[in-house]
C-alpha cells in the first residue's frame, strides 16, 4: 500500500486535481464509479464512490457482506499562505489509496469475496470553522448534508479513516480504532478486528475513546472530539472509526504533517478488514450485545434524528 499512498499524496498535492482525474488514474477493471459535484458560496467539492465487486458480492447476486470505506474529511487544504495538504486530508488520502490498491489488486486477479464500496469527497478549497482546541477544516456543505452523500445503503458495515490529532485522548503515533457504533449505541470492540490491528501493526491494539457526544449531529452544538462515527447517524450499519493519531496535538489545518507510513498502515488495515469481513472471518461488533441493549433500553435513534429530519 505504500506505493498507492505515495501516488495519492502526489495526486492530491496538485490543487487542480479532483474526482474525474482520480477516476482516470485508476487502471481499467470491473469497478464502477459515481461522481457527484457540489458547489456553493463556500466552495466546491466532488463526492466520489467506487464499487469493487467481490467474487460472491451482492452486486453480482451473491450473499457476501459489503464493506464501506468512507474517507472522512472536511477538506484537503485552506486558502492562504500555507498551500500544502492539511492534516485533515488524511481520511481522503487513505480512502483513495484503498481504492487505488483494490483496482491494482484486481488487475493481478486478486478479487475479494465481498464487495467493497469506497466513498469520499475531494475538496481542494475548504474553510476553517471555530473549534476547541484547534479550528476544524470544513467542506462547503454542513455535516447533515455531507454525510448522507458519503453513506450508502449498500454498505453492511463501515470503516471511517479520519485524522484525529487535535486532542489529548490518545498519545500514539499511528492509527487507532474506535469502539463500534450502531444506531446510537457505542458497543464493545470485536476481538476479530483487534486481532487484525495487532497483525497489521505488530503491536498491541490502540483504542480511541469516543463519547455519546460524538454520535450526535454536529448541528446540535455539543462538543465533538471527531466526526469519525457520524456516518452512524445516517445508516443502520455498524461504524468503526479508524483515526490517524499522533503523540502530540496537531491541528487539522497544519500542513506538511502527513505521515506516509501511518497512512499506509491504516489503509492496509481497511483492506484486511474488508477481506476478512467478506470471508466471514471478521465482525464489526457482537450482535448479542446490540440485541441485548435494544431489548433492555429500547431504540436510541430518536435523538440522533433530531436534526436529520428537521
Question: Please, could you describe this protein's structure?
Answer:
The chain has eight helices and eleven strands. With 310 residues, it is of the alpha/beta class. It has a single domain, classed as Aminopeptidase, CATH 3.40.630. The protein has a seven-stranded mixed sheet with strand order 1-2-4-3-7-11-8, with helices on one face. Strands 5-6 form a two-stranded antiparallel ribbon. It has a two-stranded antiparallel sheet with strand order 9-10. It starts with a helix and ends in a 6-residue tail after the last helix. The model has no long low-confidence stretch (mean pLDDT 94).
Strand order of the largest sheet: 1-2-4-3-7-11-8
What portion of the residues fall into strands of 2 or more residues? 15-25%
Quickly count the helices.
Answer: 8
Low-confidence parts: none
Q: What percentage of residues falls in helices of 4 or more residues?
A: 25-40%
CATH architecture: 3-Layer(aba) Sandwich
How many separate structural domains?
Answer: 1
Q: How many strand units?
A: 11
Brief synopsis:
This protein has helices at residues 2-13, 19-25, 90-107, 143-150, 191-201, 260-279, 287-297, 301-304; strands at 32-40, 43-52, 67-71, 116-122, 127-129, 136-138, 157-163, 174-175, 181-182, 185-186, 239-245.
Amino acid at each position: 500500500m505504500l506505493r498507492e499512498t505515495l501516488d495519492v499524496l502526489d495526486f492530491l498535492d496538485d490543487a487542480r486535481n479532483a474526482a474525474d482525474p482520480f477516476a482516470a488514474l485508476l487502471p481499467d477493471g470491473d469497478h464502477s464509479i459515481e461522481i457527484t459535484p457540489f458547489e456553493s458560496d463556500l466552495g466546491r467539492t466532488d463526492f466520489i464512490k467506487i464499487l469493487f465487486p467481490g467474487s460472491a458480492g451482492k452486486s453480482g447476486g451473491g450473499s457476501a457482506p459489503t464493506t464501506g470505506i468512507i474517507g472522512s474529511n472536511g477538506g484537503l487544504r485552506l486558502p492562504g499562505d500555507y498551500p500544502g495538504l492539511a492534516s485533515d486530508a488524511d481520511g481522503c488520502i487513505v480512502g483513495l489509496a484503498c481504492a487505488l490498491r483494490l483496482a491494482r489488486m484486481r488487475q493481478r486477479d486478486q478479487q475479494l469475496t465481498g464487495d467493497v464500496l469506497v466513498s469520499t469527497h475531494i475538496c481542494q478549497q475548504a474553510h476553517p470553522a471555530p473549534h476547541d482546541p484547534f479550528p476544524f477544516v470544513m467542506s462547503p456543505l454542513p455535516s447533515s448534508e455531507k454525510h448522507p452523500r458519503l453513506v450508502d445503503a449498500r454498505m453492511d458495515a463501515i470503516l471511517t479513516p479520519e485524522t484525529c490529532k487535535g486532542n489529548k485522548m490518545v498519545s500514539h503515533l499511528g492509527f487507532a480504532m474506535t469502539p463500534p457504533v450502531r444506531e446510537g449505541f457505542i458497543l464493545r470492540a470485536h476481538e476479530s478486528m483487534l486481532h487484525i490491528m495487532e497483525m497489521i501493526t505488530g503491536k498491541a491494539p490502540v483504542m480511541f475513546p469516543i463519547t455519546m457526544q460524538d454520535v450526535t449531529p454536529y448541528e446540535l452544538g455539543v462538543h465533538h472530539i471527531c466526526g469519525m462515527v457520524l456516518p452512524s447517524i445516517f445508516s443502520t450499519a455498524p461504524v468503526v472509526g479508524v483515526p490517524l493519531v499522533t503523540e502530540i496535538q496537531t491541528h487539522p489545518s497544519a500542513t506538511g504533517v502527513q505521515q506516509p507510513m501511518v497512512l499506509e498502515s491504516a489503509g492496509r488495515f481497511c483492506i484486511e478488514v474488508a477481506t476478512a469481513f467478506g470471508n466471514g472471518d471478521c465482525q464489526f461488533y457482537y450482535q448479542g450485545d446490540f440485541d441485548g441493549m435494544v431489548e433492555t433500553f429500547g431504540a436510541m435513534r430518536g435523538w440522533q434524528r433530531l436534526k436529520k429530519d428537521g
